[in-house]
Specification:
alpha/beta, Rossmann fold, two-stranded antiparallel sheet, 11 strands
Length: 185
């Protein structure tokens, strides 16, 4: 199971693209609200109903933590004490962590990017303390996947699929989405 975390002010494109693409790949992707309410408002006023509250999530069964960006969504994720503990646990255990747009700041703030190559929304590189900013659209370094922002949400989501299910599944999903018509697979 992959847990995609939603905080008030999340970037809708990034969150929903990850959920959609992962589910197309056969991954059990669940949206987790860290707000105490299943209904979570995004940065552009779109309300999404999460699958579960943070307190209900089973992190022992979680294969990967995913953090969409958006502001103040990324800082709200960074400041959530329970999620902080989970990020730290995953980082120490070498379990997969993924964040896009501004959300890599939440990983960096809790030591998960120390010594890693990572990318973040342009102009926010100072929030990647301990990491090596790549400036790439998507960066995969060991157990950590980071993406630059909303227009790259599809590329980021496909990188998650490749990490979890392999290159062949990524290609199948990308072809079904017609991604092969606009980008390399």
């Amino acid at each position: 199971m992959v847990l995609i975390h939603l905080a008030e002010g999340y970037e809708e494109v990034e969150a929903l693209t990850c959920v959609d693409v992962l589910r197309r790949a056969g991954v059990d992707a669940k949206m987790v609200s860290v707000t105490g309410d299943l209904l979570v408002q995004g940065a552009h006023g779109i309300n999404i109903e999460a699958d579960m509250l943070f307190e209900e999530a089973d992190y022992d069964a979680c294969e990967m933590i995913v953090l969409p960006g958006g502001m103040p969504g990324a800082t709200n994720l960074r400041d959530h004490a329970g999620l902080t503990a989970r990020i730290e646990d995953f980082a120490k255990a070498g379990k997969p962590l993924a964040a896009i747009c501004a959300a890599p700041l939440a990983l960096a703030a809790h030591g998960a990017l120390t010594g890693k190559n990572a990318t973040i929304y342009p102009g926010m590189e100072s929030h990647l303390a301990g990491a090596n900013p790549t400036g790439a659209a998507v960066t995969v370094d060991g157990n950590v996947i980071t993406g630059m922002g909303p227009a790259l949400a599809m590329e980021f989501a496909l990188a998650l699929v490749e990490f979890l299910k392999g290159a062949e599944t990524k290609k199948e999903v990308a072809t079904g989405l017609l991604y092969d018509r606009i980008g390399e697979i």
